[in-house]
Amino acid sequence: MKQKAAHDDDYAYVYVIKNPSYNDICLCAWDSVLYAGTPVVYDTRFGLDLGIVVGPAPVPGSTYKPGSTEPRGACLHFHGEKDNDGEYSPDENAHQCDSCFGCQVVKEPERIRVAGDVDWIDHLATPSEMARYAENSSKEEEAVRICREKIRKHSLQMKLVTAHFLLGEPKVIFFFTADERVDFRELVKDLVSVFRMRIELRQIGVRDESRLIGGLSVCGRDYCCHLMTREMEPVTIKMAKEQNLSLNSAKISGPCGRLLCCLAYENDYYVEEKAGCPPEGTRIKLDHELWRVSEVNILSRKITMQASEGRTISIPFSEISFNSATGFWEVSEEYQEELFST
């Protein structure tokens, strides 16, 4: 990389940089400490453009922490219930949460060795560049209107999503979706005659469309793809099955019509937890009788077992273990005595 060659060594501060226009997220290095919200100019796949520092990148080599099996309380912003005087009393059971940015301690950047897919920030954005970025942003809505008129003129089967004027050079990028390949050569000629600068038309998928324009998902929060996801990872129906979710497509699909991105977030945890449990259909001997595992509930951390005549019981994960000597799953004798003595 041409930027890296200009630096004295390979040690620097690495930051997560997000492009506010088309929501690309990448890792970039810089020689000094920067804080969240700092505007920078960095080399994107389209050319030099404005980016915003989200925060320091995670330090490599950090130890893996398995998913917590303990329920979490409310965050520090929770004030508890109102007392007789109308004042909020603190909740003694409230705990600091791991997801609320208001509760998290701000992590200071660390100087580390730069390696892998990490580029260097070109420079910090100047006031003039910020003014030019604001001016370009104000012209994007008009550019979309003009491009849509040209698309109708040429009767092209394409849907224009958005437009973006690049900061580092006179270039405008139009993002569109289409079911098939589109011949837009004549469209480009018309757009060049209007804007008098380089024109790039980039075809994207429906998931990328949601990532660009954003919106609110069924959970009431911004689309994950728009807010925080770096790469569009594949999501499969197997993940929904692994989490015992309804296979109704309307319930597990996002506004883009594809499977919800959040299905992939907890999938590793479910796989990890189920690896230490007997799979559904396993036969386990209880009180001289064979019971069949009918359900493995990861959230309650209990296994439902069913007898031949239809009786069911729930047993905690902690009371079931695999006996490598016999090759069978077993329930602890102490729990069996407690269970069948009543």
Binned, the helix content reads: 10-25%
Structural class: alpha+beta
Low-confidence stretches: 1-5
User: Number of DSSP strands?
Assistant: 16
| General form | elongated
Distance between the termini: 72 Å
| Overall number of domains | 4
User: Major beta sheet, specifics?
Assistant: 7 strands, mixed
N-to-C series of helices and strands:
HEEEEEEEHEEHEHHHHHEEEEEEH
The average pLDDT is: 83
Describe the model:
The chain has 4 domains: 2-58 and 107-125, no CATH class; 129-204, GMP Synthetase, Chain A, domain 3 (2-Layer Sandwich), CATH 3.30.300; 208-272, no CATH class; 283-340, no CATH class. Mean pLDDT is 83; it is low at 1-5. The protein has 342 residues and is an alpha+beta fold. Helix content is 24%, strand content 25%. It has helices at 2-5, 127-154, 185-195, 206-213, 224-227, 237-242, 249-252, 267-274, 333-340; strands at 11-18, 25-30, 39-43, 48-56, 111-113, 119-120, 123-124, 159-165, 171-177, 198-203, 283-286, 289-297, 302-306, 312-316, 320-323, 328-331. The strands form 4 sheets. Strands 1, 2, 3, 4, 5, 6 and 7 form a 7-stranded mixed β-sheet that branches. A 4-stranded antiparallel β-sheet has the order 11-12-13-14, with no helix packed on it. It starts with a helix and ends with a helix. α2 (127-154) crosses α3.
